[in-house]
Amino acid sequence: MKNKSLGKIADYIQNNDNYLIIGHIDPDGDAIGSIMAFKFLLDNLNKNSIILLHADLRKEYEILFKYLKPQDYHIYQNQDKLSDLAKYSNAIVLDSANIDRLGNFKEFIQSCFKVNIDHHNDNSEFGDINYVNSNESAVGKIVYDLTKLMSINIDEQLGTAIALAVLADTGSLKYPNSDPASFRLIANLKENKIDIVEINRFLQSFSSLEYLKLLSKGLANIKTDKTGKIAWLVLSNSEIKDLGIEEQEIKNLVNYPRDIRGVEVGISFVEKEENFIDISFRSLNYVDVSDIAHKFNGGGHPRASGTKVEGNLNQIINRVLSEVKKNV
Questions:
Q1: What is residue 224's three-state secondary structure?
Q2: How many Å apart are CA 220 and CA 150, to the nearest integer?
């Protein structure tokens, strides 16, 4: 475990103000839930803060945005000068293994004092204070521990954000990283009147009819290798364009090949832009897919990783499968 104590972060937060809160590009549920939870945590302390968003996720995550006012977040736009954010001297960075994962905000927060909170074992410790605990199931769990340490009351909005983060990264407590502490956390939030059923319903529902149609195309494209231990799903850019679906809606497709009985490694190849492929890896028991992702300039967790690769879709698929077969 590479970290400085949560106590040091708690002390810094208590003694300072004006915070930017940011997670990684193409955020998953843990990233979104964590940054929202941290906003609500700081609100409880009467600290001035604002969330930085790489894209407009208000519709997709209305379950959390309903608790926010427009001035609580800033959505990046091309040629954004960000001048109105100059007063914020501190940055809370969540669920980001390295500073490059902050996209267009990377340069902007360089001058800030950075508190880096993460659970990726390959975190580069780019913060001025780093808390990196790869044993935690989700960054949302770390935020939960911080609320307990600081004796912050977990109200509906804070509890909902934490629960969403943890349930998203544990597959609603189905994934191997679902440790006893994760079950206790969800049980505690349930006892605290947080609507766990509604959060799970949100996480497991489809964002639109178009997404469901896109999923049907992806499922029709699933293939397995001869051993039945590797399965992969492919969506080409032309298939995506045909349905006119928003890029940020395309997520979690890798779970379908991974969930085929007997499969050890599931992969999704999604060509979100022509010749630019978003690749996700999931493994069940023994393959460290983060090692595979690193070979393609990606990263993540031993059982869940990803990368983005430029090139011909079929050629990239063959290269990746060749590497995966060496590990299965």
A1: strand
A2: 50
Which letter, b or e, does each residue of 290-321 get, where b requires 16 or more Cβ atoms within 10 Å of its Cβ?
bebbeebebbbbbbbbbbbbeeebeebbeebb
H helix count then E strand count, the chain: 12, 13
Domain boundary at 151, 185, 204, which?
A: 204
pTM of the entire predicted model: 0.87
Residues 294 and 157 in one domain: no
Query: Residue 200's domain spans which residues?
Result: 2-204
For residue 88, give Cα distances in angstroms to 12, 21, 54, 71, 85. Answer: 15, 10, 18, 14, 6
CATH of the domain at 260: 3.10.310.30
Report the candidate in 198, 205, 125 with the shortest Cα–Cα distance to residue 156: 198
Going by DSSP bridges, is the β-strand pair 276-283/230-235 parallel, antiparallel, or unpaired?
Answer: unpaired
- Binning pLDDT at 50, 70 and 90, where does residue 208 land? confident
